[in-house]
Amino acid sequence: MAESKEIYDVNAKWDAYLDVGVRRFVYSSATGLLAGFLLFRSPVTRWASVAFGAGVGIGSAYSECSQKFDAVETHVSKD
Fold first, then answer.
1. Number of domains in the chain
2. 32 pLDDT exceeds 80?
3. Transmembrane residues, as ranges (predicted)?
4. Structural domain includes residue 69
5. CB 58 within 8 A of CB 24
6. How far apart are CA 4 and CA 11, in angstroms?
7. Quick one: angle between helices 43-70 and 10-39, nearest 10?
8. The model's pTM
9. Which residues are CB-neighbours of 2 under 8 A, at least 6 positions away?
10. Does residue 12 lie in a domain region?
11. What is the Cα 62 distance to its own chain's centre?
12. Mean pLDDT taken over the chain
C-alpha cells in the first residue's frame, strides 16, 4: 500500500504565524484605539486601551501559534 508522506515546511509555518501575529496585533490595537476614543477622555487612558488591545492581540496569536506548533501529529498507517 502506498504511504502518504507529508512535507513539513517550517518556513511556511513561521510565515503563517507571523501573518497571524501581525494581523491580530493591528486589529486589536485599532479596536483599542476606537474604544479609547469612544469611552475615555484622557490621553493616558486612551493609550492604555490601545496597549491593552495590543496585548490581547499578541497573547491570542501566541496562544494559537504555540498550540499549532507544539501539536504532535500522529500518523496512522493502515496495513
1. 1
2. yes
3. 20-40
4. no
5. yes
6. 21
7. 160
8. 0.72
9. none
10. no
11. 5
12. 82
The answer as to whether 40 is a domain residue is yes
Q: Determine the length of the chain.
A: 79
HSE-CB for 19 with a 13 A CA cutoff: 6
| Domain extent for 36 | 28-60
Q: Among candidates 67, 51, 61, 58, which has minimal Cα distance to 20? A: 61
When mean pLDDT is compared over 11-15, 28-32, 62-66, 74-78, the highest value belongs to 28-32
User: Is residue 43 domain-resident?
Assistant: yes
pLDDT at 72 over 50: yes
Q: Which residue has the higher pLDDT, 57 or 4?
A: 57
Residue identified by cell 496597549 is 51
pLDDT > 80? residue 15: yes
Q: Which three cell numbers stand for residue 11?
A: 518556513
CA 66 to chain centroid, in Å, comes to 9
pLDDT of residue 79 exceeding 60, the answer is no
Contact between residue 32 and residue 54 where contact means Cβ atoms under 8 Å apart:
yes
